[in-house]
TrEMBL record:
EC id: 3.1.26.4
Any Gene Ontology biological process: DNA replication, removal of RNA primer
Keyword Kinase among UniProt keywords: no
Protein name: ribonuclease H
Presence of the UniProt keyword Lyase in the record: no
UniProt keyword annotations, A-Z: Endonuclease, Hydrolase, Metal-binding, Nuclease
Organism: Rhizophagus clarus
Domain RNase H type-1: 242-387
Length: 550
């Protein structure tokens, strides 16, 4: 299956477009109306559009020939139908089967069932479509000067004549946007998305008189009390307009206590300007626990309370967050590599807040546990966040990305903001591991595992240990066989041998060393005589380990 449907078994990228496109609430741009008079017809130049057609169940591209407002309730436009070309003229033909990497090259349609037969203004276009202006989206086309050089002389002449054009976004991205816009217009979104959209719209309409547009709280799913709590800080800082520099100390905390529903703590406080009411915050976040995620959440929530066009100095003890912030803001990594950054959704929201409010943000490194008063206060707030009721979660319908993956096996509705290849690999490995634990021979091991008696990371390193320097050998083969037998309780003790060879070992069940108790895989390691043999080796390994640690 991997060889048939993926481009590379290592990256697991699909070689086809998904038949069922993801649903998401997006902010989209429509063609300009710019009518100045009633009953007016406009003929825009080099203006393009696209929309989702339920007739062909696919995206439709077109060049706008004219638009009119003869009917004020339904603005219409006439477009020339263009379709994606089947040949890849701008890239190497070896990449033609990659949906995401393929250039979206368009050519004129020679005629299809979408043609509007009552158009008589111009006979040169072969396929004309009549479409509502409010149900279409604005399409950006690359200029001819920005197109790559092409070695084919015939195709070069066609480009100069305008026989081909290329969109700025890929076909897969535009198809997803058009599909979601069609669902939103016809109210066909899934109940979860529809309810969230209605709630967000009601909240925005109810709070439009209360919260300014620069208070970007809608990027998070927050309670009403928490929104008011943060907005109070926003108002306090807005009154200090004479001081355009804000200093904030942030910190995150993560304690790996092996709980099923573990939370991370985050905290921050403002050290400058000095306000009559101290500005500090302590909260919690969930899912995919890590200290860097808690730190990123702390930075993101701290930026919410910062007024428009201010300079913010954020002091943190996380060098990883500083490096990630520098790489993203300075565009040192490609957008595709940005999606491989852990917690990339949080960093996208951070960049969006900085851009929307025109903030100038500088991150500074503070040495951890250096007895810095402000850093110690942020650390105490982060630790208190583990038990805080202020739960912080990103609003997945306002994340500034086109597509996000949601884990919803048990109605968890958890947005995955890590490298999706690694997440899929980890999920598959854990499913296989759980299936292995369900074997009847592993009943005791399963009980010990659920009781957290087995240290599986150390066990994994033990299985990767090679006592021989060579990659393959008879010694390594025997060692691997013994490892599998030991972990599965299949070492050929007398109880197992009597089951496999009942006639040969019918009356011989006791331990061959002490001859006192029946020999099993459990009693093998508890026999007093065997322990005397094993004790010198255990002592030697313990001494070697102590020497290695020192």
């Amino acid at each position: 299956m991997i060889e048939q449907y993926t481009i590379n078994p290592n990256t697991l990228r699909l070689n086809f477009d998904l038949p069922s496109l993801p649903q998401q609430q997006l902010r989209l741009k429509r063609p300009k109306k710019n009518f100045t008079l009633p009953n007016q017809t406009l003929h825009p130049r080099n203006t393009w559009t696209y929309f989702w057609s339920p007739v062909i169940k696919d995206i439709v591209y077109g060049k706008i020939l004219s638009k009119d407002n003869h009917s004020p309730h339904s603005l219409m436009m006439i477009i020339e139908h263009w379709i994606p070309t089947t040949m890849n003229i701008f890239r190497n033909q070896n990449n033609e089967h990659i949906p995401k990497s393929r250039d979206n090259t368009l050519q004129r349609c020679e005629g299809c069932n979408l043609h509007y037969p009552y158009y008589i203004a111009d006979l040169r276009p072969k396929c004309i479509i009549l479409q509502a202006l409010d149900k279409s989206l604005d399409l950006k086309i690359k200029r001819k000067g920005t197109l790559p050089d092409n070695q084919n002389a015939l195709l070069t002449r066609n480009l100069q004549k305008g026989s081909f054009c290329q969109t700025t976004k890929s076909h897969h991205t535009l198809r997803t946007l058009a599909y979601n816009d069609y669902l939103r217009i016809h109210q066909l979104l899934s109940p979860d998305i529809t309810s969230t959209i209605n709630i967000n719209m009601n909240d925005l309409s109810a709070e439009s008189h209360q919260y300014p547009s620069s208070f970007l709280h809608f990027y998070f799913s927050l309670s009403f009390e928490l929104i008011q709590y943060l907005y109070r800080f926003y108002n306090i800082l807005s009154n200090f307009s004479f001081d355009q520099v804000i200093d904030i100390y942030t910190d995150g905390s993560c304690i790996f206590d092996q709980q099923q529903d573990m939370t991370m703590g985050l905290g921050w406080h403002v050290s400058r300007p000095v306000t009559p009411t101290p500005i500090s915050f302590s909260g919690a976040c969930k899912h995919f626990p890590s200290s860097t995620k808690a730190e990123a959440y702390a930075i993101c929530t701290a930026l919410i309370i910062c007024p428009h066009q201010t300079t913010i100095n954020i002091y943190t003890d996380s060098q990883y967050c500083i490096n990630t912030f520098h790489n993203i803001t300075q565009c040192l990594i490609t957008p595709r590599r940005q999606l491989k950054i852990p917690n990339h959704h949080i960093w996208f929201v951070i960049m969006k807040i900085i851009k929307d409010n025109r903030l100038t943000v500088n991150l500074h490194k503070v040495k951890a546990h250096s007895d810095n008063e402000h850093n110690n206060k942020a650390d105490a707030l982060a630790k208190a966040g583990h038990t805080s009721s202020n739960l912080i979660e990103l609003n997945k319908h306002h994340v500034p990305t086109n597509i996000h993956i949601v884990w919803d096996q048990h109605c968890d509705n958890i947005t995955i903001n890590h490298n999706i290849h690694h997440i899929a690999w980890d999920i598959g490995n854990r499913q296989k591991f759980y299936a292995w634990l369900n074997y009847k021979t592993n009943a005791a091991l399963k009980t010990a595992s659920f009781s957290q008696i087995v240290d599986w990371p150390s066990t994994e390193r033990f299985f990767n240990f090679n006592p021989d320097n060579r990659p393959t050998s008879h010694k390594l083969t025997k060692f691997r066989a013994w490892q599998r037998k030991a972990i599965n309780n299949l070492i050929p003790t007398m109880d197992i041998m009597s089951q496999r060879y009942p006639k040969l070992f019918q009356d011989v069940l006791n331990c061959w060393s002490c001859n006192l108790y029946p020999e099993t895989n459990t009693s093998l390691w508890l026999c007093s005589i065997n322990l005397e043999v094993l004790r010198p080796h255990i002592v030697r390994y313990t001494q070697d380990l102590q020497q290695y640690i020192r």
